[in-house]
């Protein structure tokens, strides 16, 4: 190392001035980029907030922020559960395209080739990046993503003049906060029971109390966020900091978190942009916008605000920053949603919403929303809802949660905000139905959507590079989707093509052919004999269990010893759990079906801890009900 020594006083003054100017330029460059803060509350849709709904919880700090910012009336998580929603956010990618769609992951997926988690791009350009503290990504995480991620992480630890991106997470409204006991509910009288019970919920004391507790938690989390905002102001940072508030997905009363109804996807979002940076906000402060924004858009938006080019591998697009106009934003009226496995409970549902109309595609419509999930059913409200259904004490709308669904549904959310009236069979709605159906079919095929391969097959064959695997098998995935869409035809028109699928040498075509059979129920009874043969002789265990599922759901005899042998030979806990989902469904919908599955047939590692998915599923199946 060496030092430059000026040869004269004049030159020394010149050199000092040079250094001062140089340092000032660095600080100026730092100040030429905004600080960005995310305030994130967990498990809350927009439906429980006074800012959005009459009778919602008052949140004075967020409401005050909204008066100086913009309220997004149509902000959506693409997924209704933590890890999938957060994986979507951190990558800017649709989770079923990149292998991050299962909650919780059995194995972590790599990020797409050439793409980094978006805070890394901020960090490379001089931002101080901090996260306090939840991550919950389904991706392999680079150590370079955050300068600090912990419960102590703070923007205050940055260098002087350094711009920062900070995420502050709040778990106050998380689902676990509603796992109180009957005794606690009886003893706690501080909550005034609310009459704001949703139409698909039973109007009982338990649901009124749960609603009241949940609303009170919104006010509590608002106070916590207010303390953070006060700290920002005390640090003199409010006028150089863009602030986002949003919920990480919907929730959290029954039929919200984990489900792609609006209660699971439609989240609150408020964005405050100070005067200095108002040129980056296409709307005026103190207004609301009906423009649609999705979680895939968050990463591109932050990068755009920071003046960083958005990677082409991201699926989202910016809704703030340079080159985003108000007219462009107001044209955005579409959002896409996905639901797959949540803990031990499997499903495959995709949604597309355009304006006030929402199309929902249930690819396994014989599944019931209310199928037991050990974490969901820790909530008294879930337990009571199931009990009232078993006792025949629910009305038609309240019963829907425990009954098979239609393969497709269409909702007019302006008239039916809680999605209880399916318009798919209304002839007047056919043009809208066909448009949205076609849009969704194009979406799942173009990605392509990796969930049309069973999860254990994908983990074994595609996890190393999910995007490349999807592109390599894009034609095959499209063929599987076409077989799945036979459910949308009258059986007389679908029968010949189902027969062809069941004879295919491709096991996953046989797999989807059997799912189509189960969707048609008794109408597909001409395939009972074929299903019996497949159940006994197919080379693929997952195809065999789908054949057994089809037969059992239609009151046909099945060999229970064969079921146990299939489970015994499962090559992974993921395969075992997928097979167990079919058995749990049969048990839940066929009262006369009983089976006892010995835990001794499984690898001890799969069942040794509370919360292990195989253990929880077997315990449910084996209980006498």
Keyword list:
625 residues; alpha/beta; 9-stranded mixed sheet; 12% strand; disordered N terminus
Structure, explained:
The chain has 625 residues and is of the alpha/beta class. It is 40% helix and 12% strand. The protein contains 23 helices and 13 strands. It has helices spanning 9-31, 60-68, 82-91, 95-98, 119-124, 182-187, 205-234, 262-265, 298-305, 326-330, 380-390, 396-399, 430-446, 455-461, 466-472, 474-484, 491-502, 507-520, 528-537, 541-553, 560-568, 573-589, 613-622; strands spanning 35-41, 70-76, 128-132, 148-149, 164-170, 241-247, 266-267, 269-272, 287-294, 334-339, 349-354, 357-362, 408-412. Strands 1, 2, 3, 4, 5, 6, 7, 8 and 9 form a 9-stranded mixed β-sheet that branches. A hairpin with a 2-residue loop joins β11 (349-354) and β12. α16 (474-484) runs parallel beside α18 (507-520), α17 packs antiparallel against α18 (507-520) and α19 (528-537) runs antiparallel to α20 (541-553). The chain starts with 8 loop residues before the first helix and ends with a helix. The model is unreliable at 1-30 (pLDDT under 50).
